[in-house]
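PROTEIN DESIGN WORKSHEET
SECTION A - STRUCTURE
LENGTH: 126
TOKENS:
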């Protein structure tokens, strides 16, 4: 049975989806863009700040589900410019212990929702 997870501490969905779905012990988190949930404004002050905001949105959803980054088993990162990979990776790495970091792929795409530069989704297991 699936349980819908939503929190006011992360941006509200901008389409027909939820922030996350919990099935048994597995949490599927929708892609998070660098939107400040309190203001509804996009963070556009540089790719590091954009990545940090996306990660903080993911953290809020994980917290709502009673989980943390240590339970993330898979991440997907979508970026507009692969030349920004190292800066994104630098921020992303601060949220994980390198020895237990999740599986991941990073894909360059033509465009993302609201034309942001980064979007990150995750799967976590209790």
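SECTION B - SEQUENCE
RESIDUE ASSIGNMENT:
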């Amino acid at each position: 049975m699936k349980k819908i997870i939503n929190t006011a501490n992360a941006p509200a969905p901008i389409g027909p989806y939820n922030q996350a779905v919990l099935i048994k012990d597995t949490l599927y988190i929708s892609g998070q863009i660098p939107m400040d949930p309190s203001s509804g404004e996009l963070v556009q002050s540089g790719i590091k700040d954009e990545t940090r905001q996306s990660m903080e949105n993911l953290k809020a959803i994980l917290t709502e589900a009673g989980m943390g980054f240590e339970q993330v088993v898979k991440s997907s990162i979508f970026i507009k410019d692969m030349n920004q990979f190292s800066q994104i990776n630098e921020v992303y790495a601060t949220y994980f212990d390198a020895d237990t970091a999740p599986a991941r792929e990073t894909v360059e795409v033509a465009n993302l929702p609201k034309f942001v530069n980064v979007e990150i989704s995750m799967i976590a297991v209790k």
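SECTION C - NOTES
The longest strand covers residues 72-79.
The mean pLDDT is 97.
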